[in-house]
Write a structure and sequence with these properties.
This is Outer membrane protein beta-barrel domain-containing protein. Residues 17-204 form the Outer membrane protein beta-barrel domain. Residues 1-18 form the signal peptide. It comes from Winogradskyella jejuensis. Strand 9 (179-189) and strand 10 form a beta hairpin. The strands form three sheets. Strands 1-2-3-6-7-9-10-13 form an eight-stranded antiparallel beta barrel. The protein is mainly beta and 229 residues long. The longest helix has 24 residues, at 2-25. The protein has one helix spanning 2-25, and strands at 35-45, 58-69, 76-90, 93-98, 101-106, 114-133, 143-163, 167-171, 179-189, 192-199, 209-210, 213-214, 218-228. The chain has a single domain, classed as Porin, CATH 2.40.160. It starts with a helix and ends with a strand.
Length: 229
């Protein structure tokens, strides 16, 4: 009997100590969603007459966001981050360069079969988010709604045109806007989240024109966002 009593006391003390340890280990200063990665379908909007997309256009994005909760429950926070992205756009603009500068035209029958025609941008991104979620210190699956703003700096661009009549590659053209910015929205539950980016300024500078009209094309991206602690 004494053995059983001693065993019971030992187990009681051990369990009590474990519970106290667990309560101490719960992080009441937790943060959420520090790393992100996303895949998007890229759309060109506000195009000049005759400009159309010709194929599936994709974007890849990744980076780090500092999560900064500002209420006691920690379900509201501000996120400020740094990332990189690459975005390709398949379309029917013919972009060429000569001594007079960069020229824009539309694909036509003189090119024959066009197997590839795209331009690609490589960006450094600074995302800013206002974050609301249903998380707590122990629940890693929760609902989130993150509206925000993204400022991007263009570090490199390239174009590629391959057809029966011409095969050309250009890079670092001075007709792309270096600073690009737009509104963002990420929302979902757990691992899978919907993502939207709506560009507020044109991809090209004011000097870019097609048949005398300014090319005010903007970027819209729809995709899937993955957040990782």
């Amino acid at each position: 009997m004494r053995l059983y009593v001693n065993l019971f006391i030992f187990l009681f003390v051990t369990l009590s100590f474990s519970q106290d340890s667990l309560s101490v280990e719960v992080d009441d200063r937790y943060r959420e969603d520090q790393f992100y990665a996303s895949i998007t379908y890229n759309i060109l909007s506000d195009n000049p007459s005759g400009v159309n997309q010709t194929d599936f256009s994709t974007g890849f994005h990744a980076g780090f966001i500092r999560d900064m909760p500002f209420n006691e429950k920690r379900n509201w926070s501000i996120g400020l981050g740094l990332g990189i992205s690459t975005n390709s756009y398949n379309q029917n603009l013919v972009i060429t360069e000569d001594v007079s500068g960069v020229n824009f035209a539309l694909t036509d029958a003189s090119l024959g079969n066009v197997s590839k025609n795209k331009f690609t941008t490589y960006l450094i991104d600074v995302p800013f988010e206002l974050r609301w979620r249903t998380s707590n210190a122990t629940d890693y699956k929760f609902w989130r709604i993150y509206p925000g703003f993204k400022l991007s700096y263009l570090v490199y661009n390239s174009t590629k045109l391959k057809s029966d009549a011409i095969n050309t590659k250009l890079s670092n053209l001075d007709v792309f806007n270096r600073l690009q910015y737009g509104l963002t929205l990420s929302a979902g539950y757990g691992t899978w989240n919907f993502q939207l980016y709506y560009g507020l300024n044109p991809i090209f500078k004011d000097t870019a024109s097609l048949n005398g009209a300014s090319i005010d094309t903007k970027a819209v991206r729809v995709g899937v966002m993955f957040y990782i602690l």
